[in-house]
Amino acid sequence: MNYLLVGGAGYIGSHVARELARAGHHVTILDDLSKGHREAVGGLELVVGDLGDITLASRVLEEKSIDCVMHFAAFSLVGESVEKPLPYYDNNVGKTTRLLMAMKEKGVTKFVLSSTAAVYGESAKVSIEETDPLIPTNPYGRTKLMIEQILEDAERAYGMKYASLRYFNAAGADEKGDIGEDHDPETHLIPLVIQAALGQRKSISIFGTDWGTPDGTCIRDYVHVSDLAQAHILAAERLAEGRDSMIYNLGCQTGYSVLEIIQITRQVTGHEIPAVEADRRPGDPERLVASSARIRSELGWKPVYEDPERIIRTAWNWHRGHPHGFEKEK
After folding, report:
1. Domain assignment of residue 49, given as a range
2. 319: closest CA among 167, 171, 204?
3. Which of its termini does the chain have fewer beta carbons within 10 Å around, N or C?
4. Residues 3, 88, 120, 140: which is the catalytic one?
5. Domain CATH for 130
6. How far apart are CA 262 and CA 276, in angstroms?
7. What radius of gyration do the chain's Cα atoms show?
8. Are residues 154 and 205 in the same domain?
9. Do 99 and 132 reside in the same domain of the chain?
């Protein structure tokens, strides 16, 4: 199949692109490189441009005979979305709508969305299911929910079929160690802990040690980025077979606390990694764990990297070899 990955030079998009190419598919990446990295694309075809440029998107869809579009181009920082909501609505909702208009014009009817657990908001449930209430608490989560609603309307009106994949905590890096997580600023726990191991930050902050969990710190569900990639491929293949649109959670269904992640990273890296207690952050849920029973049952998806030590080891391999991300290759 011929795939177009918008935002395919970013962290998750580049890993999906790599797995698609390994499976024998033809991949074209459309990315403005504002967040992504040219080096992450490797030898795959890259078109530098804006996903909201209807003329450009239409040309690429037609010239490359695209069968399916995958979307990884959303702005995704929760705090920033609160401070600067309008760019989030413009990029995540407005530009995605224009991309869908280009798809409609060119008769491309398959779409896979990189969605998020943020659509659920502060769920009181320990294990979140796809049928649980959707009450996002920040502009980022609201933009992703809006895209899902737009896709539902586009299916009804134009026959577009879509898969919305709601991630929990993406982590890790490709086993070969040549692509990985390189964000500025970095907000994810595992790379932040690894930065402390590398001496790039003095310590790692723990936001609250008095939660109602066994060790008093928050619990999260971590899923390896290569397992996310396989879920994208499975969903796209089912869409190509004529399956109806689908919505799935992606997670390992087991939660690990902040302290557990720090301790495992200490063991993997061999570094002490100082940890500093800090105040709770407003809006942080105590536990956030996915039920991914639906995609496991319906598509046969099973994460390969369910052991957090293995996830962290792949991340450590990437960061140790690229302590400044892709910077040293530029």
Report:
1. 2-171+222-250
2. 171
3. C
4. 140
5. 3.40.50.720
6. 11
7. 19
8. no
9. yes
Q: Annotated catalytic, 222?
A: no
Quick check: pTM over 0.90? yes
In the 8-state DSSP scheme, what is residue 209? S
Region of 37 please: left (phi>0), alpha (psi -120 to 50) or beta: beta
In the chain, the N- to C-terminal Cα span, in Å, equals 32
pLDDT in tens, the chain (330 residues): 999 999 999 999 999 999 999 999 999 999 999 999 999 999 999 999 999 999 999 999 999 999 999 999 999 988 899 999 999 999 999 999 999 999 999 999 999 999 999 999 877 787 899 999 999 989 999 999 999 999 999 999 999 999 999 998 899 999 999 999 998 888 899 999 999 999 999 999 999 999 999 999 999 999 999 999 999 999 999 999 999 999 999 999 899 999 999 999 999 999 999 999 999 877 677 888 889 999 999 999 999 999 999 999 999 999 999 999 997 544
Q: In DSSP terms, which residues pair with 26 in a beta bridge?
A: 2
Q: What's the number of domains the chain is made of?
A: 2
Residue 152 in domain:
yes
Task: Give the E-state strand segments of the chain in sequence order.
Answer: 2-6, 26-31, 45-48, 68-71, 110-116, 127-128, 161-167, 169-171, 204-207, 219-224, 246-250, 255-257, 275-278, 287-290
Q: Are residues 108 and 8 located together in one domain of the fold? A: yes
Tell me the two tokens of residue 66: 């695209």
- Beta-bridged to residue 6, according to DSSP, are 30, 71
Helix H, strand E, coil C: the string for 129-175 is CCCCCCCCCCHHHHHHHHHHHHHHHHHHHHCCEEEEEEECEEECCCC
Q: Are 137 and 196 within one domain? A: no
CATH for 316: 3.90.25.10
Among 224, 232, 222, smallest CA distance to 289 is for: 222
CA distances from 71 to 4, 52, 257, 283, 297 (A): 8, 12, 30, 27, 24
**229-260 residues labelled b (16+ CB within 10 A) or e (exposed):** bbbbbbbbebbeeeeebbbbbbbbbebbbbbb
324 and 227 share one domain: no
